[in-house]
Design a protein that fits this description.
alpha/beta, Rossmann fold, pyruvate-formate lyase- activating enzyme, 4 domains, 8-stranded mixed sheet, 6-stranded mixed sheet, 25 helices, 18% strand, globular
Length: 645
Amino acid sequence: MKKVLLTSVCRPMGPDFGDAPSVGYELLYRQVTRAQGIFSPRALHLNFSLEYIARNLSSPAVVLQYPTKKELIRELKKGYDYVGVTFLMAVFHHMKETVELIRRHSPRTKIVLGGYGTILSDEVLKPYGDYICREEGVGFFRNLLEEPKLEMPYAHPLVVSKMKIFSIPVSKTGMIFAGLGCPNGCDFCCTSHFFKRKHIRLLPTGRDIYNVIERYLALDPDTQFVVLDEDFLLNRKRALELRDAVLEGGKAVSLFVFSSIRAISQYKVEEILEMGIDGFWIGYEGAKSGYAKQLGRPAAEILKEFRENGIIVLASMVVGFDYQNEEIIREELDGLLSLKPTLGQFLIYGPVPGTPFYERVMKENRMEDRLVKDPELYYKTADGFSAMVKHPTMAPGKIESLQRMCFEEDFNRLGPSIYRSLETWFLGYLKHRGSSNPFLRRKAQRFAKEVLKAYPVFLPGILLGPNGAVRSWIRDLEKRIHLELGPPTPARRCLSLVTLAAALWTHFKLRFNLFQHPSLTRHAYRDLRLGLLSSHTFADLSMAVRWHRGRDIVRVRLEGVIDSLNAEEFCQRVSDSLKAGKESLILNIENLKSFEGRSVQILCDRLKEYRSRITIQSRFSRISTSDLARLSQTFHLAPISLEES
């Protein structure tokens, strides 16, 4: 069986290492909230596609997220038949270094290049890869490995993004991979034209999406969600299927989605909230940009309504359209900021290979001369923060300075986004706390819970906000919230001081550039050769193993979730290990957060051949009567003693 390694490019990277301004490991801090300093939320942005592909192969696979060169070399020495490297155009030079390491330390390994960096031509990429993936990755790799085709929906890995504010963990976000590509076809959009303006539904129905939500909630009932789909609400049938499933489930879940004005205009705000959606990324672009996705209700009307109903909005504006000059950019910025979006992104209109804008720029000979002469400089600066096109009225430096102005004005006039979020949730609570709709009342309570949890963050904003007007606004917001939700408890007052100290520590780290790079994230999938000889982590299930060799006993403690997707893989591994030896297995399931129904049946069916050698250990208080009966009919059950708990 072939072995596969999937990896990102190597760290360290970022502006301090000669990269473009937005290159790094985070979407918010490096891009959206780049002007907000210590107030910026921090979350590691994983290469989600690698986890998704690895989860859906039959061959053993390992995923590395941001390895150092030394860590990559150590992994390569374990021997792999294929190594997949994902990259963006702006890290082309890092991809070259990664490929050079692979060829030097594992010369027989075949290299697969993937990610949106593969929009570059075969002529450019062929020297660095044996294969180039420019399609949906699971199908590509399964074909390459001669594995049978899978039907959608594919198995969905549970990938959790952890957010910090002032260096303190505050939330967990479950990533939901619902679709690829976008039919809107904006002339600058790489993701739309990469998939030829087609939409690939990885999760075809609303029920499929909700099934993934339930798996995450079994891990942590407070999980929030991001649905990765370029224009999620465009497919009304699927969206309303999700609404039906959410209402049936009864939980006031929290989803952040990507959508257009055209798609949003199909729905009432109550329908959107009933889908669990309380956050949007919306392409505001420009007032005269003229994209079809902007047709529908006025953007100002939608953003105002969303804010009043507790829905946060990340509005994305483009700087550098041909019709724009400094005056127009300032007017459009004023118009956007008057709508008080929770977050704002401002990117420079840039040409990406494969898009209509790129073709037009090249045809009209408008690419900056220095970039035409040095293609690798063009790749390196294609990050949305460099002016690369000869503009009718503005020099490159002027466009870049106006972009910086947009980010700074957004921060200085509207304040840190974390407080804008709190205000929006507070408004949503006030709007729906007395609703006749039971689900919207539950949604209001969720908003209130998030605001109460955030009480300690007010003190840093009041003392350290960017200017007097913002500090005064944060103080007034705190007073309004305390009047409605109650004053802080003594414990929360103490936490406010701790949070202030954490904010100062965050400032110190940023000032001296300390601890700004992530450690390696490594996940192994289907490494069956290990048997039960060592601890192992699946994407959403971990197990710790202890051997008692003198007594021929193996103790396995499970944590996380066993579901119908990973139960088969786990049982195969256990079966292979028991078949190869004579040991007895004691399986401790006490710390599982979800183990029921279908997964219990799979465990009983797949391991019944070894029933005499398996003991299931737990207090069994969280297992249903029917599942407990099923387990007891197949295996020996034993309680956990004090020394084992």
